[in-house]
Amino acid sequence: MGEHILRRFSMVATIALAVSLLIAPAMADDYPSKPFTYIVCFNPGGETDITARIQEPVLKKYYKEGVVITYKIGGGGSVGWSELVSSKPDGYTLAGHNLPHIILQPMLRGNAGYNTLDIKSVYIFQSTPNILVVRADSPYKTLKDFIAAAKAKPGALTLGGSGSNTANNLGAIMLDKAAGIKTTYIPFTGSGPVVPALLGGHVTGLMTYSTMAVQQREKFRPLAIMSEERMAVLPDVPTFKELGFDLVEGAYRGVAAPPGTPDDIVAKAAAIYEKVMEDPGVLKKMDENGFKIERMGPKASAELIAKRMVMYKEMMLQMGLLKK
Fold first, then answer.
1. Which residues pair with 206 in a beta bridge?
2. Which domains does the chain have, with CATH numbers?
3. Which of 86, 95, 212, 292 has the fewest beta carbons closer than 10 A?
4. Using an 8 Å Cβ cutoff, are 170 and 107 in contact?
5. Could you give the CA distance from residue 285 to residue 127 in angstroms, rounded to a whole number?
6. Is 38 in contact with 69 (CB distance < 8 Å)?
7. CA–CA gap between residue 39 and residue 55 (Å, rounded)
């Protein structure tokens, strides 16, 4: 009886594998031929949403059956990524994904609802460095002023940012350690909600992204940016390096597919995004919003993720945030 069941199971598994091998090429041949769902894991108004909205009109030229942008907000992006990894691996559900978020959350939180390598990167198309900003009418006119105030009142200065175990969160921790200060980091569900929090006086400043500083240049006073060099779109903002702090950090963003998505479908989706990121209108809007253009297909983005997994593990160990 038991052997009979095992033989039947083996036969069914063999047939299922054969069918999947036959179906996968057929699926790839007519891809894309269905509506495409684009999961945004953060609030409207944040970097992932801004990028998706800029790309949407051009994406519709290739996904002729329609592009549906849906929001799955919470957990610093983990709610959306948890849904992604359980979605059908057919190339018609992709999600915006962020580094270091998809690395730090499983690493530091344990059960994040997904594993880093479950997320199959399709294309990385932009990045944004962290930037420390205060309100335009803040008494802190320079990074030196901010650090002096933080040293005088440990824990009293609050920094809002997008999510926990994210680039903003890490940037705030790095600043505290490098400057020998203690600030209080307050996580929000995305970059969008941090803007009214600062303008309303609910936080002292923000560890946010270059995009927010560009959009709110009349209302924010940037103190320093965590990039290797000054950004052309923010030429008057000094880097932390210029000011004596070797701090470079920010977020890479792209789109990812569920685990098990056939490589040929991933390649076709990546080719579509490559074309989208060659569109002059898309490039112009990305530049105007303070994004740095990246061009990494499946192989290059997978290599970046693997390299960053090693880098962040070493960094977390050194900072005492991860136990050996």
1. 133, 160
2. 2-126+251-318 (3.40.190.150), 129-250 (3.40.190.10)
3. 86
4. no
5. 14
6. yes
7. 13
